[in-house]
Write a structure and sequence with these properties.
The protein has 731 residues and is an alpha/beta fold. The longest helix is centred in the first third of the chain and has 33 residues, at 80-112. The radius of gyration is 28 Å and the shape is globular.
Length: 731
Amino acid sequence: MSKKTFTNPKYFTNRELSWIAFNDRVLEEARDKSNPLLERVKFLGITQSNLDEFFNVRVASLRKMVSVNYDKPDAAGLTPTMQLKAIGHDVHELVDKQYRTFSRSLVPHLENIGVRILTAQELKGEQLDYIDDYFHRELYPILTPMAVDVSRPFPFLADGTMNMAVRLVRPEDEAKGKGRSFATVQIPSTEPRVLRLPGDGQDFIMLEEIVRHYIGELFVGAQISETAMFRVTRDMGLDVDEEDTSDLMKEIQAQLKKRERGRVMRLEIDGSMSKSLEHYLMKHMHIDEADVYAINGPIDLTFVSQLVKGITIPDKEQYLYKKHEPYLPQIFKDNSMFDLIRQKDYFLHHPYDSFTPVVEFIHQAAVDPKVLAVKMTLYRVSSKSPIIKYLKQAADNGKQVTVLVELKARFDEENNVHWAKELERAGCHVIYGLVGLKTHCKLTLVVRREEDGIRRYMHMATGNYNDVTARFYTDMGLFTADQEFGEDASNIFNMLSGFSEPPYFHKLVISPMGIRDYLSERIDDEITAAKAGRKALIQMKMNSLSDPEMIRKLYEASAAGVEIHLLVRGICNLKVGIPGVSENIEVHSIVGHLLEHSRIYYFYNDGDEQLFLSSADLMTRNLSRRVEILFPILQADIKEQIIGIYGILWDDNAKTRILQPDASWQHIDRRGRTPLNAQEYLLEHAKELADDLIGGNDEPEGHRPNDPTGPRRFVPLRAPEDVDDDEREDK
């Protein structure tokens, strides 16, 4: 079959609609009665925050395309206008499903364990006294009613804020024969959204319910005719012209201020709001009816995380996932990280394995007198990052510290600007990335002077250097002192900080462009094997699969007879079951307790298995618009363990959904099967797996297999000029 046929739009699913299907899989976890009740509640809140960001970024991007008359269809054949229409249809259905889940399933189950969300009318006695005191003591002084008339324009409403629309009739309106007046009251974001009420039970009330109950006190002398909650979601993208700015940090800070005033993308309103009030808001928001979402319940379901934290029932633990303490092998407690890594490579699988060795690697580098330099890329770090602390300590101890802080990390820009300033004040050399590219690779290099000369120590990973998310994101990392890895890492940092363009890399593969070409070559090898009648197998794990070129390459492999297994957590634009195209491709998606974040790329390679970990998904942004790394796993025992982990994930039949030819996702039929929840299995066996690996390699110092593919020509790190917008961040 000609490769050209793989471009047919019917072979692709639209990226945005696939993402909505992913969020629906998250919502299924809120509906799954096998999950602990309070975890189901939290899953519901996650679907809300996911949707908010989707409108902030993806819907906003499509709206911009429409505004400039960009009508190029995507790989699935949908123009931006067509995509927006389809998104509106699917999201309205998803929102209805969210609130049915909340009101018909979760609320009754919460009430069964004594947790109630009450209205002011349901209160009496000390509970009524409590909200009366709270309103007058805490709320009334900070509430600001905003009237709208000829002298007071419609107020600006920030993204995500909760607001109460008020229709009222004033005495002067009646005297002059005028209609009702309009005002808004913003619900303070500085106060808890959910308040625990006094008493022996687990009774709660929403903050806006208290404001509604006492709204008349903010409009003395007027008659309140209608109150209704509403919330706006704005375009939160940053428009940074890196080519024409002399100071990227200042430009980012300026754009952060402008972002707050972005165009309205969505208006959520109380389902009981009158049509006249709805149209009034639509007019002032400059939106169409398709952008309005009538909510039959509390607007903004992210409040449920506060609710869960506020519940204090004695047996609360039985309604939550069992607490897991990441395993830290004794060997990391008793030895220097450098002594260990000098002997052999070490593999960590978070959160099953502790993130402590990664933090300790930086800590020991900061205080070790033999360490000369520390170089590191930071994309997302926690608000109280110990890694930042130790990088500053390293600089204070006279080490040469170079840190690339990616200022353009979506929704972490402000946090990263803060850390960049902190590091600069501490004496670190801070770089902000390359023009036109985000630096997304996860890479640390420590240079140490030892008795036998200079030695480089590295840590490479699939996930961020974030000690908080490392407890619930599944990621993989590798410590190594391999000389060729170290030379490649030095070359990468020299490119990021200067103008170096090395002739080739020994073992690391980088994007833009490099990873795409390299993986395509490995796929070609499997195609050659399949056509020759030999076994051919590709196994990949990633967060999202949306790059059309890579999907076409996988179709080519499938058509040639290569067996392809894909673990894709989120977006998947590939279709399965197309005769002659994707009959040999099976796609699984695991949505469960932990967020599957690691990226694994495996090729059978005629029995000489090749295995790679990467910071990159198969998305256009990762392959063409970012600095990413892909690194081979060469130590036999580590390779065996990762292949085994992939097998466990592939065999999961508890949280796995399988992609169907109609683009739906279906649970595995477990009849006759032994139940396997892969994440729970890996949590239960974390100590066993880690100890087996650490004790299972007796190779002599410095003995690490060579990469059989050999050195690769360097491709300059320059952003391509014409790449589809693909900027939604994967946290």
